[in-house]
Amino acid sequence: MNADLVLAAAREWLGTPYRHRASTLGAGCDCLGLLRGVWRALYGAEPVAVPAYRADWRGEADGALRAAAERFLLLVDGPTGAGQVVLFRLGGMSEARHCGIMVSAERFIHAQEHLGVVEANLTDGWARRVSGRFEFPNI
Fold it and tell me: Whole-model pTM above 0.85?
């Protein structure tokens, strides 16, 4: 994985408004839409059509985010680094419900409701919710 390419693609999305299920640079995206947009910048077309999902990822989508990460990305078993995709549990749920891209061991880029795509600190609160780290396949 080339972290510089991943970060350059992710930073293009900074300032994009939050829009559930969207993935359009500058117009709107959610956390998955950000990853989809970075994928397209790195590889071209997305590998599969993304089925509809609820904003809270509950119901039939339980486990879908992690399953997709395991199918299309490479699991990281080592130190946190730039360019890695990070999954988060939210709201006390056991399954991943949010994702972002690491800028460094202390910062990440993600799409957050009411904020849009931002670069944020990986605070203790966020760090406690990490449920997996992945890399984009070799570029």
Answer: yes
